[in-house]
Amino acid sequence: MKVDHFNLQHENAYEGLGKPLTLVEQIYKSLGRAIAMGHIQSGQLLKETDLQKAFGVSRAPIREALRMLESDDLVVVDAYKKRYVRQITRKYIEDLIPVMAALESLAAGLAASRITDEQISNLKKLNIDMSEAYEHKNMNDAPS
């Protein structure tokens, strides 16, 4: 069997590109980022019609993105089906931190037992890149 090295090389060249984000994923990420950065305030009502105009899309992708944010606990729905950005209270954080700490500890243990030398080298390089981006106050060049 003959191996076509040109086509094999050509196919491998695109491995790192990843799959493009769907419209819903783009809206979800954009809204999540806006909430995390404080551009959309805690407790703010999220009106579908306003979001439709802002993103220039129909209701379906907005609703799906809001459902995803709701499952992430960033958005809450009241009895009247209105969606709001979650209010972060002291109690919410006190309830959340022990659970997150336990999950992160478990994840760190599992990762440490499976990590390869190459992956450790990649993590070290990413750490250096992020430190340099921070020092130069250029977060656009920081790895994501």
How are strands sequenced across the largest beta sheet? 1-2
Amount of beta strand: under 5%
| Number of helical stretches of at least 4 residues | 6
Distance between the termini: 41 Å
Structural class: mainly alpha
- CATH homologous superfamily classification of the largest domain: Winged helix-like DNA-binding domain superfamily/Winged helix DNA-binding domain
| Radius of gyration, CA atoms, in whole angstroms | 21 Å
Quickly name the level 1 CATH class of the largest domain: Mainly Alpha
| Oligomeric description of these chains | single chain
Q: How confident overall, as mean pLDDT? A: 87
What is the overall silhouette? globular
Largest sheet: 2 strands, antiparallel
The helix-strand sequence is: HHHHEEHH
* CATH-scheme architecture of the largest domain: Orthogonal Bundle
Describe this structure in words.
This protein is mainly alpha-helical and 144 residues long. The protein folds into two domains: 80 residues, Winged helix-like DNA-binding domain superfamily/Winged helix DNA-binding domain (Arc Repressor Mutant, subunit A); 52 residues, no CATH class. Helices cover 61% and strands 4% of the residues. Strand 1 and strand 2 form a beta hairpin. 9% of the residues are buried.
Question: What's a quick, concise take on this entry?
Answer:
By secondary structure, this protein is mainly alpha-helical. Helices cover 61% and strands 4% of the residues.
Question: Topology, pairings included?
Answer:
Layout: H1 5-12, H2 23-37, H3 48-55, H4 59-71, E1 75-77, E2 83-85, H5 90-114, H6 117-135
Antiparallel strand pairs: 1-2
Helix pairs in contact: 2-4
